[in-house]
């Protein structure tokens, strides 16, 4: 799977950096953003394949960010991150076009399975 | 004002408690109001009816008594009138039965007198007077033959009127009597003569006493000049002047109420006696009609008291029933409110749990990733030495995240601890100084100017020192976070009133935007950088101050600073008891 581009969006910098490093070790091309605006800027710079998006980020509500991303490119798959079982937000996220969600703390194997599924879906559509 | 506002807040947040306190007094006053209203509705008409009937009955009795008096006076007057009529008729009969010659014969007249005396009660003497006023013959106890009456007024009067009844006068024996005279025409002589009889006053007196008199009553006869014709009990003997003015009408009995006569009310009745110069007078001072109502009054009183007792008992029973019904309905509402409160409490606990999960999950996620990264590195690289620095940094990151978790769990412990309050005597100024000593290093390190402005003679307060300390710590900590390097913080204390001590913590920091002000006391609301605040500090502080009977007030302006004012009650126990 060459050049799979991921974008991690979360305001917990320590978390995103560590997770990014782990994903990089698994040969993904990973960039990180600490806020919605930063994320949108990075997306415009280069479209990622999959975005891992925290639902609580500064600058813009997670769901709003998700909708904006889907507007920019509906083919970008989004996996939502949530710190607690906010079922309503998750449901809304799925309705707004998110591919999957995953709970914090993240099990890396589970995340990779979900990322690969998202990539497979994206490739199929292409 | 602040205290009132605080009370209002309490009512809003704990309507259930407020309702309970309010209702106890409310039921009492409601019951009193029902009893009073009902008593008024039932007792006022009762009292009115009883009073009216009492006076009505009295007036009927009085009227009845007056009529009795009137009737007696009338009867007596009639008896006297008949008596006089009878005497006049008897004299007329004598005058017409005998000739002038027979009557003027002294022997014959004495004979007639002695026969007549038996039938004619009270007769004292009998005399015949010729047209010149000379007494030609006289039968009686005095030597009055030859007496000249021509100059006396009565003689002139009888010449005109044919019949004459005199006032009472004193005779030769100093005994009161009166005279009746009739004129006899003597056509054969072309002249007239007068037959005159003197009658003892005792006869009149007997008639007057026929009126049914009680202890204080009096009845007597007056002439038109107000001279007593018969002796009276209270107004003097015969021929004395009666002290009240008597103005008889032409006919009929007059009954007058006299309000005050010799120390009491009286009925004053009088009637002119026809065919005589007299007036029959009765002064009735006894008032039996006042005594009769006394009996009536006792019965009335008994009935009234019975009615009052019954109505009061009924009123109390009714009020009790009504109030109990209301109480029951209120209890149901109260229970419903308690249930709602319980539900909202559960919702709060749910929010709290979600907040805690989120706050703890973030540092856990960091620990998870850092530990996972270390594992990943170990898996791809054999040399530990090569990755030593990387590992140390990751371990530090983990330790930091553990610290974050610890802060949150500690705050939560504080949250649960605020449920219990302990009481001790606390010097608020000392408490402020102690709290500041915890933060000294941070203040020094960040080059913050701290100014203490504490009032010296603050009263000692009875409160939970640890909890007050925590409130000060939270708020001063916030102030330190709010100010930039070289900012300043002022902590001042002063007495608000007899019940509260105020501590104000003022900073010149970033301030709180208006839209955020209403959220600052909500749990997990934080505007601090990630990982720096738990969003529990102010929420906990607010809860503590509420429990202690105090309050926290905020004033803030963006970019100018924020002032938190903490009001600590001088006596927590007192406020807690008096409040909610």
The CATH superfamily of chain A is identified as Response regulator
What's the CATH architecture name of the domain at 421-578 in chain B? 2-Layer Sandwich
Rg of chain B, Å, rounded: 59 Å
Shape of chain B: rod-shaped
Low-confidence stretches of chain B: 11-22
Structural class of chain A: alpha/beta
Residue stretches of chain A low in confidence (pLDDT < 50, at least 5 long) are none
The third-level CATH topology of chain A is Rossmann fold
Mean pLDDT of chain A: 88
The CATH class of the domain at 421-578 in chain B turns out to be: Alpha Beta
Largest sheet strand order of chain A: 2-1-3-4-5
Write the element-wise H/E pattern of chain B from the N-terminal end onward.
HHHHEEHEEEEHEEEEHHEHEEHEEHHEEH
Specify the CATH architecture of chain A: 3-Layer(aba) Sandwich
Sketch the major β-sheet of chain B: 6 strands, antiparallel
Return the domain count of chain A: 1
- Look at the structure and give the mean pLDDT of chain B: 81
Along the chain, the helix and strand elements of chain A come as EHEHEHEHEH
CATH topology of the domain at 421-578 in chain B: Heat Shock Protein 90
| Terminal residue distance of chain B | 17 Å
By secondary-structure content and strand pairing, the structural class of chain B works out as: alpha+beta
Describe the fold and architecture.
The complex is a heterodimer of chains A (126) and B (580). Chain A is α/β, with parallel strands linked by helices. Chain A has a single domain, classed as Rossmann fold, CATH 3.40.50.2300. Helices cover 48% and strands 20% of the residues of chain A. A five-stranded parallel β-sheet of chain A has the order 2-1-3-4-5, sandwiched between helices. Chain A is globular, with a radius of gyration of 13 Å. With 580 residues, chain B is of the alpha+beta class. Chain B is rod-shaped, with a radius of gyration of 59 Å. Among the domains of chain B are: 103 residues, Beta-Lactamase; 82 residues, PAS domain (Beta-Lactamase, 2-Layer Sandwich), CATH 3.30.450.20; 158 residues, 2-Layer Sandwich (Heat Shock Protein 90). The two termini of chain B are 17 Å apart. Helices cover 54% and strands 19% of the residues of chain B. In chain B, strands 1, 2, 3, 4, 5 and 6 form a six-stranded antiparallel β-sheet that branches. A five-stranded mixed β-sheet of chain B has the order 12-14-15-17-16, with helices on one face. In chain B, strands 7-10-9-8 form a four-stranded antiparallel β-sheet, with helices on one face. Classes of the chains: A alpha/beta (126), B alpha+beta (580). Chains A and B meet through helix 1 of A and helix 7 and helix 8 of B.
């Amino acid at each position: 799977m060459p050049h799979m581009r991921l974008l991690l969006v979360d305001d917990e910098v320590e978390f995103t950096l560590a997770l990014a490093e782990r994903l990089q070790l698994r040969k993904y091309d990973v960039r990180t953003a600490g806020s919605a605006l930063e994320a949108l800027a990075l997306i415009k710079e280069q479209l990622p394949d999959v975005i891992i998006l925290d639902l609580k980020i500064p600058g813009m509500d997670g769901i709003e960010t998700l909708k904006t991303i889907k507007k920019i490119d509906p083919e970008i798959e989004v996996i939502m991150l949530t710190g607690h079982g906010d079922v309503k937000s998750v449901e809304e996220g799925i309705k707004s076009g998110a591919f999957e969600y995953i709970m914090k703390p993240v099990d890396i194997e589970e995340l990779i399975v979900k990322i690969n599924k998202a990539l497979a879906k994206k490739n199929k559509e292409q | 004002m602040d205290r009132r506002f605080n009370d209002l807040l309490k009512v809003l947040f704990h309507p259930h408690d407020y309702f309970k306190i309010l209702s106890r007094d409310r039921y009492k006053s409601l019951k009193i109001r029902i009893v009073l209203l009902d008593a008024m509705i039932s007792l006022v008409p009762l009292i009115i009816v009883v009073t009216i009937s009492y006076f009505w009955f009295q007036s009927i009795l009085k009227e009845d008594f007056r009529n009795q008096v009137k009737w007696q006076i009338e009867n007596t007057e009639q008896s006297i009138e008949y008596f006089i009529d009878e005497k006049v008729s008897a004299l007329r009969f004598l005058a017409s039965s005998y000739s002038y010659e027979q009557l003027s014969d002294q022997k014959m007249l004495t004979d007639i007198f002695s026969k007549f005396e038996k039938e004619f009660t009270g007769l004292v003497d009998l005399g015949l007077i010729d047209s010149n006023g000379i007494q030609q013959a006289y039968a009686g106890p005095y030597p009055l033959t030859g007496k000249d009456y021509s100059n006396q007024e009565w003689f002139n009067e009888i010449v005109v009127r044919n019949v004459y009844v005199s006032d009472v006068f004193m005779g030769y024996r100093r005994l009161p009597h009166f005279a009746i005279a009739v004129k006899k025409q003597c056509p054969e002589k072309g002249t007239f003569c007068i037959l005159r009889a003197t009658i003892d006053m005792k006869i009149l007196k007997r008639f007057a006493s026929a009126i049914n008199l009680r202890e204080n009553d009096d009845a007597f006869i007056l002439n038109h000049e107000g001279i007593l014709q018969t002796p009276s009990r209270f107004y003097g003997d015969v021929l004395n002047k009666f002290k009240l003015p008597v103005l008889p009408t032409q006919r009929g009995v007059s009954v007058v109420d006299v309000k005050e006569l010799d120390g009491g009310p009286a009925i004053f009745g009088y009637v002119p006696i026809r065919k005589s110069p007299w007036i029959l007078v009765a002064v009735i001072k006894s008032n039996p009609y006042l005594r009769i109502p006394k009996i009536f009054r006792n019965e009335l009183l008994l009935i009234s008291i019975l009615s009052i007792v019954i109505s009061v008992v009924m009123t109390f029973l009714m009020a009790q029933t009504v109030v109990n019904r209301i109480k029951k309905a209120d209890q149901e509402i109260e229970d419903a409110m308690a249930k709602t409160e319980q539900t909202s409490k559960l919702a709060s606990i749910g929010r709290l749990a979600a907040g805690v999960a989120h706050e703890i999950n973030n540092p856990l996620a960091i620990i998870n990733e850092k530990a996972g990264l270390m594992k990943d590195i170990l898996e791809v690289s054999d040399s530990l030495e090569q990755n030593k620095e990387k590992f140390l940094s990751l371990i530090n990151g983990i330790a930091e995240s553990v610290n974050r978790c610890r802060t949150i769990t500690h705050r939560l412990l504080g949250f649960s601890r605020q449920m219990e309050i302990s009481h001790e005597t606390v010097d608020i100024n000392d408490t402020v100084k102690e709290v500041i000593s915890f933060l000294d290093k941070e203040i020094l390190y960040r080059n913050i100017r701290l100014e203490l402005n504490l009032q010296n003679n603050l009263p000692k307060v009875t409160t939970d020192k640890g909890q007050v300390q925590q409130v000060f710590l939270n708020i001063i900590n916030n102030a330190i976070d709010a100010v930039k390097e070289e900012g300043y913080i002022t902590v001042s204390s002063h007495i608000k009133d007899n019940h509260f001590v105020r501590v104000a913590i003022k900073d010149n920091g970033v301030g709180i935007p208006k839209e955020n002000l209403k959220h600052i006391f909500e749990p997990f609301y934080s505007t601090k950088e990630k990982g720096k605040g738990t969003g529990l500090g102010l929420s906990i502080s607010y809860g503590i101050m509420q429990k202690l009977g105090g309050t926290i007030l905020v004033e803030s302006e963006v970019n100018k600073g924020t002032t938190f004012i903490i009001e600590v009650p001088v006596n927590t126990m007192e406020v807690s008891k008096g409040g909610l």
